[in-house]
Amino acid sequence: MRLISHRGNVDGKYPQYENLPEYVDKAIDLGYDCEVDLWVLSSAKWNNDDAFYLGHDEPTYPIDLKWLTDRYLNLWIHCKDLKTISKLRELQLEMHVNLNYFFHNTDDCTITSRGDLWVYPGKQPVKNSISVMPEYHKDDISEAHGVCSDYIKNYKK
Q1: What pLDDT is stored for residue 50 in this prediction?
Q2: Given Cys at both, which of 27, 60, 116, 117 links 55, Cβ 3.0 to 4.6 Å?
Q3: pLDDT tens digits, residue range 113-125?
Q4: Cβ neighbourhood burial of 77 (10 Å; 0-12, 13-18, 19+)
Q5: pLDDT digits (tens, 9 = 90+) for 2-58
Q6: C-beta of residue 74 within 8 angstroms of C-beta of residue 31
Q7: Helix and strand totals (H; E) in the chain
Q8: Which residue, 38, 64, 61, 60, is CA-closest to 51?
């Protein structure tokens, strides 16, 4: 079972640390994958090159493409808007950057760039899916092959 920390959280919600690069790294160092929220912005400061940021409600923590690619095996990248998912798709096609990313809004389910079904809380069981926040609705995760949670430590067997 894939165990995915939600924004770096492993034993509860800590909004003040969520998506902080060092916090994400700590979850990865503990052996978990990590879902992060990504924004891509254009900025004259970088000669109109795209700048990458982590953050849930807004771009907060600047990172670079190398930070993402160095962790590509452990990141589940939630693209926060269409510009961001378009940029990651462009990087995948043109530069062969191998990142695991997805976009969703209110969908019951979305498919990640690696073909995983990312299923919204309350919509389980779905065979071979990633169950997101199953504790919200006491979802049956018996069919899932992964869980994403703020309390991911509770799913470790």
Answers
A1: 84
A2: 60
A3: 999 999 999 999 9
A4: buried
A5: 999 999 999 999 999 999 999 999 999 999 999 999 999 976 554 557 899 999 999
A6: no
A7: 3, 10
A8: 64
> How many CB atoms are closer than 10 A to CB 2?
15
| Residue (of 66, 74, 65, 58) closest to 24 by Cα position | 74
* CA dist., res. 75 & res. 125, Å (int): 23
Segment holding 28, helix H or strand E = helix 21-29
What number of residues does the chain have?
157
CA atoms within 13 A on the CB side of 131: 27
Q: Is 0.90 surpassed by the pTM of this model?
A: yes
Where are the domains positioned within the chain? 2-155
